[in-house]
């Protein structure tokens, strides 16, 4: 494999004395969608935040474009054009939809704000109708759209999506996955996707990783993982 | 009636000063969730810096009052802002992420330090400012009865307050810095994920609060003509009361609360007892905390997540 855009090497992270990540290796090559699946509490969201240095990796290293970003402050990592739609969406509740999007565009110095705004409104027309409404008054699905739109406003080179389908109606979740797929195909956007909805995620992704208790237990092509009986048993048919 | 009108005018003037200080409390509370108990003393330092700059200008022979006041305002704001920045840097930032009471205790320590520092450096005696602005802007035609006065100082105080508050309001609501500041207030972790340097934003918040407090310091000095090392304590607690009354964290609330506390205190002094005017203000604090803990314009803590 050629040089990956993002690579994690032996990353560990702790909450107090509890090890949340126990030596994680992940490669996200440029132009691909890579997904990380796993059960609740496996450490997926922690991993997403550790890429941003909050919590900071205790051991191991995180490389972006070959540059070691393990010890950079969170805001400087964001300025490298890594954007995240985080767990829980984290919309600014007392800001309007437009202001939330402006916050997303801050790292671009608003160089192409109008153009980017038009683009996200094209992708999520619902947000355009709600532009002057406060973030806290949006429905869950709308907040999810806003969180992704806000991340896109920075023209990210790498987009981290933490459970974009969580709590959404299946139809909206499907719509969000198809948007992610289109952005990847049409614009070559690199995406690192964390999901519990393993079926959709693996179908969409070029490559997948399975995380259990803070460790990567399996990896491979998206469709290839989907075929594996262990994956099917644990993440696809297990709960049904 | 004339007497009441006069008290209203005095109350609005005093309320302007409280409002300017209250903004510093409410803004810092909004962004770091602590009460900066040293803020009243930053106001006091601001008053002293204004006094020193004014006297220095007078010694240099700057006699034209509007020019002198303008220079005093700008220089005092800059220097006081530096104090605000330093206090945050030394006493609060190292404690961020520590338990909630730690910065509060540190703030009280900072307040004591600032008072003693000024007492040692400037002496404990009351320092007078020579009268700079004299005369009346307007006087009622008093037909043998009570004459209502609006002095030039009062006009300057109210106008300066309005201008500062508008400027400040525009910064918070219209600029990208203000937006980043509100983002930090609502979710600092997310703000960092979007490239906002949260520590720097917090520093600048302290700087803005201190600058407004120094405006209040200058206004206080013009109004009362004196300053001593202890003025920050009572004025600070009253401004804090104003911030709580308006709803801590709410900027319009701080302005409104300041105005109300100024009016209440003045009217209480006028009709009941000057000796017990502080009791009036602090009773308000108690009553608000018991019956209306989120204040007049504060938001109740209900939010869709």
From TrEMBL, chain A:
The keyword Protein biosynthesis does not apply. SMART domains: AAA. Keywords: Amino-acid transport, ATP-binding, Nucleotide-binding, Transport. InterPro entries: AAA+_ATPase, ABC_transporter-like_ATP-bd, ABC_transporter-like_CS, BCAA_Transport_ATP-bd_LivF, P-loop_NTPase. One of its GO terms (molecular function) is ATP hydrolysis activity. Pfam families: ABC_tran (PF00005). Residues 6-238 form the ABC transporter domain. One of its GO terms (biological process) is L-amino acid transport. Belongs to the ABC transporter superfamily. This is Branched-chain amino acid transport system ATP-binding protein.
Automatic annotation (TrEMBL), chain B:
Signal peptide: none annotated. This is Branched-chain amino acid transport system permease protein. It is found in: Cell membrane. Belongs to the binding-protein-dependent transport system permease family. LivHM subfamily. GO terms for biological process: D-alanine transmembrane transport; L-alanine transport; L-isoleucine import across plasma membrane. GO terms for cellular component: plasma membrane. The keyword Lipoprotein does not apply. It comes from the Bacteria. It comes from Hansschlegelia beijingensis. One of its GO terms (molecular function) is L-phenylalanine transmembrane transporter activity. The chain crosses the membrane at residues 12-35, 42-61, 67-87, 99-118, 153-172, 202-223, 229-248, 255-274, 280-298. Keywords: Amino-acid transport, Cell inner membrane, Cell membrane, Membrane, Transmembrane, Transmembrane helix, Transport. Its main location: membrane. It is a multi-pass membrane protein.
């Amino acid at each position: 494999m050629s040089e990956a855009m993002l690579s994690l090497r032996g990353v560990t992270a702790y909450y107090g004395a509890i090890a949340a990540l126990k030596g994680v290796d992940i490669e996200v090559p440029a132009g691909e969608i890579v997904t990380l699946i796993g059960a609740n509490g496996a450490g997926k969201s922690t991993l997403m935040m550790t890429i941003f240095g909050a919590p900071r990796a205790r051991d191991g290293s995180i490389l972006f474009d070959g540059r070691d970003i393990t010890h950079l402050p969170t805001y400087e990592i964001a300025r490298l054009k890594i954007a995240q739609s985080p767990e829980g969406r984290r919309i600014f509740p007392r800001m309007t939809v437009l202001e939330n999007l402006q916050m997303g565009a801050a790292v671009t110095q608003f160089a192409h704000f109008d153009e980017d705004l038009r683009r996200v409104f094209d992708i999520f027309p619902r947000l355009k109708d709600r532009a002057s409404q406060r973030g806290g008054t949006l429905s869950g699905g709308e907040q999810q759209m806003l969180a992704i739109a806000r991340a896109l406003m920075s023209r990210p080179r790498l987009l981290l999506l933490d459970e974009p389908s969580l709590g959404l109606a299946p139809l909206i979740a499907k719509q969000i996955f198809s948007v992610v797929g289109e952005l990847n195909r049409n614009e070559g956007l690199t995406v690192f996707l964390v999901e519990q909805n393993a079926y959709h995620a693996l179908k969409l992704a070029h490559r997948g990783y399975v995380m259990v208790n803070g460790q990567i237990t399996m990896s491979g092509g998206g469709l290839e993982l989907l075929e594996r009986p262990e994956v099917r048993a644990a993440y696809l048919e297990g709960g049904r | 009636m004339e007497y009441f009108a006069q008290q209203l005018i005095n109350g609005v003037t005093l309320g302007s000063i409280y409002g300017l200080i209250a903004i510093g409390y409410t803004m810092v509370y909004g962004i770091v969730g602590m009460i900066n108990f040293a803020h009243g003393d930053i106001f006091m330092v601001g008053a002293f810096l204004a006094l020193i700059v004014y006297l220095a200008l007078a010694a240099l022979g700057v006699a034209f009052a509007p020019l002198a006041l303008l220079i005093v305002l700008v220089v005092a704001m800059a220097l006081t802002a530096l104090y605000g920045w330093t206090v945050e840097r030394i006493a609060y930032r190292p404690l961020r992420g520590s338990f909630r009471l730690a910065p509060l205790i540190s703030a009280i320590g900072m307040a004591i330090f600032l008072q003693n520092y000024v007492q040692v450096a400037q002496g404990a005696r009351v320092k007078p400012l020579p009268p700079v602005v004299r005369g009346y802007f307007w006087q009622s035609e008093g037909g043998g009865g009570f004459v209502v006065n609006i002095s030039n100082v009062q006009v300057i105080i109210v106008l300066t307050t309005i201008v500062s508050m508008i400027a400040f309001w525009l910064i918070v609501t219209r600029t990208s810095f203000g937006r980043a500041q509100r983002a930090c207030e609502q979710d600092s972790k997310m703000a960092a994920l979007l490239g906002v340097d949260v520590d720097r934003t917090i520093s600048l918040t302290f700087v803005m609060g201190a600058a407004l407090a120094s405006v209040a310091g200058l206004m206080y000095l013009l109004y009362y003509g004196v300053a001593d090392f202890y003025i920050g304590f009572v004025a600070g607690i009253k401004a804090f009361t104003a911030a709580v009354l308006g709803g801590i964290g709410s900027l319009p609330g701080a302005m409104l609360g300041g105005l109300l506390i100024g009016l209440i205190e003045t009217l209480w002094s006028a009709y009941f007892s000057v000796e017990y005017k502080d009791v009036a203000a602090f009773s308000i604090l108690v009553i608000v905390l018991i019956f209306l803990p989120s204040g007049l314009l504060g938001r109740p803590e209900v939010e869709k997540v």
